[in-house]
Amino acid sequence: MAKTQYSPTFPAFPGDAAAVTPSDTINFREPSVVFAGSGGIIRVLTVEGSDVTFNSVQPGAILPVRVLRVFSSTTNATNMVRVF
């Protein structure tokens, strides 16, 4: 997969997206931001290694942090997409 490269004259945009399959053990191949299709709770592992739970996430929200994993335990939001 080709990734978009930064250019001073053109903003950097993510190069791909994929459905999120929450897991308590498996990380994403590349850090991603997460789009919440439905509202609820989303527990993530950030690229810095923090285990963070976002409560009351609204449908259509984008989590403002790069994540390596969306945990299946605790997370009840659905229809999530990761953008990378």
Low-confidence stretches: none
How many individual helices? 0
Overall average residue pLDDT: 90
Percent of sequence in beta strands: 25-35%
- State the major sheet: 3 strands, antiparallel
Describe the structure.
By secondary structure, this protein is mainly beta. It is built from no helices and six strands. Strands 1-6-2 form a three-stranded antiparallel beta sheet, with no helix packed on it. The radius of gyration is 13 Å and the shape is globular.
Topology at a glance:
Blueprint: E1 17-19, E2 33-35, E3 40-46, E4 51-57, E5 67-70, E6 81-83
Antiparallel strand pairs: 1-6, 2-6, 3-4, 3-5
In short:
This protein is an all-beta fold and 84 residues long. It contains no helices and six strands.
Structural key phrases:
84 residues; 6 strands; three-stranded antiparallel beta sheet; mainly beta; single chain
